[in-house]
């Protein structure tokens, strides 16, 4: 049992307002039915991913970005296998795997052992994922730094125009963080009492989507699991759903995908009142 | 009252409020990598004060990293539980409630932990109240040197001390 993370309030405390969506008949079937996420490349920008964890079931590759003051940009890029320094990235990857079992998951490690990271690494991690042609990028992390507002905005726009969907968790504390505040990303907060495939759309952004993130049984380091709460664990549910949609409809652009996610939301109604 | 004495009073009051076996406060060091237990009350208090551990370890560490108050009803079944740290205090709890303290920048500056509360832990009020009290403790930490940065901070800290006094009065 946990108290709600910041930004979750929009999805609680009464009936969620109905939102008008595109008139798509049987939209959940159209979006998800029969899809496994096969062929969809998903990057998890986080603390690393333990591909050997039973609930992750292997990953397709990855890269670790590490501080190196002697390198251009102040960091170095280390391709290949790496461990999860916390368990947080493994938790996110396992959630994605549980929804989209055949998605190709790539680990992009930018966080250290205390779940902290340099803004340059976050920026570089997103840029790497865009350069590699990832279809969806899970960002269960964000930055409060105003200095990073413009650089992260720029790379988020590059992702948006280049066909990479950024799914960005809002911070667990009040206040703006980036890139979750940008309209070019799919921003997510935790929603109480919702199942893994449930989704709600917030008619009063900046946080647009609410997903399963309260008291979630998640994979953790050492092959174990924990019960945890946080917007961090809501975002990968949306990432998994996005991977499923793209598995069936691979040509959808990020803005089309966001419209589909809104249309499959529990509080969406295609009938104007 | 010194800052450390005020914090000691605070954890004793929280322990009384929750009818708990112990209550402790750990602070995050400047580079955000280590938690150091600075005051405690109840069983194992003498042993835990002065203990430091990486923020990446333990349920308190997770609370500092995630910024989320939490309750773990069966710590033995939780992969985050730092059993060796608990064993070093000669007391291994069953249930832990934690809540983060925050500094003026919104960064976690510490964690208050309640071990084996006598009240039913898995209730809405337990974490909501602990989170509120942790916020007050955060102000005590921020203004602990007696030179608060702003008048607002000083007023809030004074309010916090009154709240803590009231909580202490409610104890058994």
* Portion in beta strands of chain B: 15-25%
* Quaternary structure of the protein: heterodimer
Distance between the termini of chain A: 38 Å
Number of strands of chain A: 13
| Overall SS class of chain A | alpha/beta
* Number of discrete helical segments of chain B: 6
Structural class, from helix and strand content of chain B?
alpha+beta
Strand order of the largest sheet of chain B: 3-2-1-6-5-4
Please compute the radius of gyration of chain B using only Cα atoms. 15 Å
CATH class of chain A: Alpha Beta
Active site (chain A): 46, 88, 232
Keywords (chain A): Hydrolase, Protease, Serine protease
Protein name (chain A): S8 family serine peptidase
Pfam family, one (chain A): Peptidase_S8
Could you please describe the fold and organization of this structure?
The complex is a heterodimer of chains A (273) and B (172). Chain A has one domain: 3-Layer(aba) Sandwich (Rossmann fold). With 273 residues, chain A is of the alpha/beta class. In chain A, the strands form three sheets. In chain A, strands 4-3-5-2-6-7-8-10-9 form a nine-stranded mixed β-sheet, with helices on both faces. Chain A has a two-stranded parallel sheet with strand order 1-13. In chain A, strands 11-12 form a two-stranded antiparallel ribbon. The model of chain A has no long low-confidence stretch (mean pLDDT 93). Chain A is 27% helix and 21% strand. In chain B, strand 5 and strand 6 form a beta hairpin. Chain B contains six helices and six strands. In chain B, helix 1 runs antiparallel to helix 5, helix 1 packs across helix 6 and helix 5 crosses helix 6. Chain B is an alpha+beta fold and 172 residues long.
């Amino acid at each position: 049992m946990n108290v709600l993370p910041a930004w979750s309030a929009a999805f609680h405390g009464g009936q969620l307002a109905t939102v008008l969506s595109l008139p798509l008949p049987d939209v959940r079937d159209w979006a998800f039915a029969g899809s496994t996420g096969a062929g969809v490349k998903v990057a998890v920008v986080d603390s690393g991913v333990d591909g050997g964890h039973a609930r992750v079931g292997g990953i397709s590759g990855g890269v670790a970005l590490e501080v190196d003051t002697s390198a251009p940009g102040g960091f170095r890029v280390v391709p290949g296998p790496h461990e999860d320094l916390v368990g947080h990235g493994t938790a996110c990857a396992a959630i994605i795997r549980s929804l989209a079992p055949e998605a190709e998951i790539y680990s992009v490690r930018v966080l250290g052992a205390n779940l902290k990271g340099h803004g340059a690494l976050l920026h570089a991690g997103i840029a790497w994922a865009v350069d590699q042609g990832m279809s969806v990028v899970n960002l269960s992390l964000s930055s409060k730094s105003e200095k990073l507002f413009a650089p992260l905005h720029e790379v988020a726009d590059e992702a948006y125009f280049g066909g990479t969907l950024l799914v960005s968790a809002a911070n667990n504390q009040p206040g703006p963080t980036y890139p979750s505040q940008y309209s070019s990303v799919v921003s997510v907060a935790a929603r109480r009492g919702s199942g893994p495939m449930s989704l709600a759309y917030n008619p009063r952004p900046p946080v647009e989507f609410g997903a399963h993130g309260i008291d979630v049984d998640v994979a953790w380091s050492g092959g174990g699991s924990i019960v945890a709460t946080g917007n961090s664990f809501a975002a990968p549910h949306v990432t998994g759903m996005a991977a499923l949609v793209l598995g069936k409809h691979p040509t959808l652009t990020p803005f089309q995908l966001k419209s589909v996610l809104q249309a499959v939301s529990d509080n969406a109604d295609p009938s104007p009142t | 009252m010194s800052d450390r004495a005020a914090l000691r009073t605070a954890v004793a009051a929280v322990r009384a409020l929750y009818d708990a076996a112990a209550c402790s406060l750990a602070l995050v060091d400047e580079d955000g990598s280590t938690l150091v237990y600075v005051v405690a009350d109840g069983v194992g208090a003498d042993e835990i004060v002065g203990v430091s551990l990486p923020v990446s370890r333990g349920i308190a560490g997770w609370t500092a990293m995630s910024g989320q108050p939490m309750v773990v009803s069966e710590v033995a079944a939780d992969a985050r539980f730092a059993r060796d740290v608990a064993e070093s205090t000669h007391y291994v709890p069953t249930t832990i409630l934690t809540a983060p303290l925050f500094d003026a920048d919104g960064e976690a500056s510490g964690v208050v932990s309640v071990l084996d509360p006598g009240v039913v832990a898995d209730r809405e009020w337990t974490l909501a109240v602990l989170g509120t009290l942790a916020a007050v403790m955060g102000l005590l930490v921020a203004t602990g040197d007696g030179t608060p940065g702003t008048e607002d901070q000083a007023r809030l800290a004074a309010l916090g001390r009154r709240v803590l006094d009231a909580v202490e009065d409610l104890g058994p």
